[in-house]
Amino acid sequence: MTVAGRRGFTLIELLVVIAIIAVLVALLLPAVQQARAAARTSQCRNNLKQIGLALHNYVSSHQRFPPGSTSDVEQGGWITNPSARHIHSWQSMILPYIEQSTVHNQIDFNLSSMHAVNRPAASQIISAYRCPSYSGPQFSDAPSYTRFSPKYATTNYVAMGASDIGHIYGQNSGLFAPDGTIYPLSNTRPADVTDGLSNTILVVETREQGMSVWIDGGTAAVVARRYDADNGPTYASTGIALNYHPYFDYDIPHAEYGPSSMHTSGALHLLGDGSVRFISQHIAASVYIALTTRNGGEVIGGGSF
Questions:
Q1: Domain residues for 19?
Q2: What is the pLDDT of residue 11?
Q3: HSE-up (13 A, CA, CB side) for residue 257
Q4: How many domains does the structure of the chain reveal?
Q5: Structural domain includes residue 65
Q6: Cα separation of 272 and 194, whole Å?
């Protein structure tokens, strides 16, 4: 009795199967990537909501928002001897309210944030301060910090301190008063935000990987408008700084990015009422500036951003 042999795949059939699998993978891959991006954005949004809750808990305890820095705007890790200046950041001050009391207790607030005693705390990577979409280093690569330690942990969230460089530096020049909510030496109460907390940005993402050390108050606030060195005293360009670089094209400190993110075409922003909004980098400059100022008197419709 003769038994027929089992027929195998021909080469053409095998190639067809491989081609079908390749097409299916090509179709599924973008969907998988989009799902992952959405998950990262959701986690980033949750980080900002946690920061917003922490800021309001701080207000409940202190009746005001924390200052962007405990020293003036010209003091930070980039100066010759930063350990001689206080420069503690708003992010250090809210640590107990984001379940980071252990790190907060490591910080000696009587000494500079850049003092050697505070470097162990400065090396701690705070998950709530990092956007999952950020692909840069965990520690600053800026010489301002690496000259002291290779492990100054960075942050992806900064305060929106003023509409432009001239205003955030205005506290020293006397020309302008800072017009944001959280900026160096700020003392802002919720009642001072007369534009309304729901119309005022407190915190924004950043993708800066050098001058964005969470413990350093000198890098803890940014501005809304692009920097123009030739347009004093505001030093403001007509465009906004969102996802624009170089953000601060100066020798020291030099920062590639201010308000920015690795999400597509914009960044997440925390508003004063605790809500989080994704704002496009193509938003009208006038609206973005109005959202930055705390008492500019602007009327902003909910559909404007």
A1: 15-300
A2: 72
A3: 22
A4: 1
A5: yes
A6: 11
From the list 168, 175, 271, the residue with the least C-alpha distance to 224 is 168
Backbone Cα Rg of the chain:
24
Confirm whether pTM is higher than 0.90: no
- The full DSSP string for 35-52 is HHHHHHHHHHHHHHHHHH
Residue 245 buriedness (CB in 10 A; 0-12 / 13-18 / 19+): middle
Cβ–Cβ < 8 Å for 202, 154: no
Each residue's pLDDT tens digit, 34-90: 667 778 899 999 999 999 999 999 999 999 999 999 999 999 999 999 999 999 999
Nearest CA to 83 among 240, 216, 207, 248?
Answer: 216
Q: Considering the domain boundaries, does residue 66 fall inside one?
A: yes
* pLDDT tens-place string over residues 99-124: 999 999 999 999 999 999 999 999 99
The answer to whether residue 143 is domain-embedded is yes
Residues paired with 270 in a beta bridge: 203, 276
Residue 4 included in any domain: no
